[in-house]
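Give me C-alpha cells for this 427-residue protein.
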Amino acid sequence: MQKSKNYRWLVVVIFFLFMLLHQTDKLLIGPLKGQISEDFNITNTQFGMVVTGALVVGTILYPIWGYLYDRFARAKLLSLASFIWGSTTWLSAIVRTFPGFIAARASTGVDDSSYPGLYTLIADYFGPQVRSKVYGILQLSQPIGYLVGMVLALMVAPGLGWRNIFFITGGLGIVLSIAIFFGVKEMPRGKAEPEFEGMEEMAKFTFSWEQAKQIIKKRTMWFVFLQGFAGVFPWNVITYFFFDYLAKERGYDEMSILFTMGPIVLILASGYFVGGSLGDWAFKKTPKGRIIVSATGVIIGALFLFLAITTPIQSRIAFFVLMSITALFMPFSSPNVISTVYDVTVPEVRSTAQSVEYFIENSGAALAPLLAGIISDAFSMQTAILTICITAWVICFFFYLGAIAYVEGDIKTLRDEMAARAAAQKA
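Here you go.
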C-alpha cells in the first residue's frame, strides 16, 4: 500500500514535468511576440490570428480527446499527445512563410486539448478530499512554464534564435512521450472514490452514451460551462499580450520586464496551490466550498487588475504590488473547477465532461487574442486588457453564484450512485 502511495506521487512528478515543459512551449509565443512579429513583419491583429488558430484547433478536438480518454488507456494517449506536441513544434520552427507559420502553429493545438485525460487519471489516484490540492500542484507548472519561457525569450532567444528555442522544447516533448509511455500505469476508473476504499478488485466502469447525456442534465455543470466560456478570455489576453504591453505602453526594458514579471509569475503559481488547498479545506466544511473559493478569486482578481492597470506609468512599485495581489487570486478557480466537475460526474465519463467544459471555454476564448489584437490596434493594449478581463471575471462571479445553488444536490446524487455501485460489487 505504501509503495502504491509513493508511486502515485511519481506519476504526479512525471505529469508535472509534462505540463511544465508543454506550457513553456505553448506560452513561449507570448514572450517571443516581438521577435516573431519582426521576423514575419506582422501586426497585432495578424499575431492574434496565429494564436487563435491553435486555440481553434484545440477547441475542435476537445470532445474527440475526451471520448478517446474515456474509452481507451489514458496513459498511452497522453504519451501520443506528448509526441504530437514535439513534432508540431518542430514543424513551426521549420516553416519560413507567414501562412505556413499560421498553419504550423495551428497544428500545435492538436495536443493542447489532451489535459482532461491527465486530470481524470490523477482523479483515480487521489480521492475527492485532496484533489484540488493535487491539481493546484500540477497547475503550478503553467505559470512557471511561462516564466521559463520568458527567460528563454529574453536571455537565450536573442543569441540562439526563436526557431532554435522551438527545436529544443519540441525535442523535450518527444523525450517525455517515452517517459510517459513506460513510466505511467493506467488506473481503474473510480478506484480512488471513497466508496471503493479497500477493494482489491474493481468493477470495470465503461463509457456509455447514456451516462454522457447525464452530464448536461446536471445544473451545476450548466454554470460551470457558462463560467468557463467567459473565464478563459482574461488568461489568453494576459498570456499573449501582457509582455508586449509592459514593453510598449509602460516603457519597460527587457530586464525590467523579467524582474517585474518573474516574481509576479511565481506568486501566480503559488495561487494555484493556495486556491486548491483552500478549496479542499472549504469542501470539507461544505459541498459548496470549492465554488465559494472560486467566486472569491475572480472578483478580487478583477478588482486588483483594474487598480494595477490604471496605476500611473511612473508608479512602478504600486503597479508591482497590485499585480502581485491580482496574480495570487487569479488561479483560485482553476483547480477547484476541475475537482467540481469530478465531484458531480461518474468516473467513466469524466474525461468527456471535462472536455465538453474545455470545448465551451475555448469556443469563445479562442477569439480572445484576435479580439485583443483588434482592440489594441484601434485603441491600446491597456484598453484591450482592461475591457476583456474585467468584463469576463465579473460575469464569472455571477455564474458561480448559480453553481452554488445546485452543487450540493448534484454531489449527493453522485455519492449515492457510487455507494450503490460499491454495494452491488460487494454483494
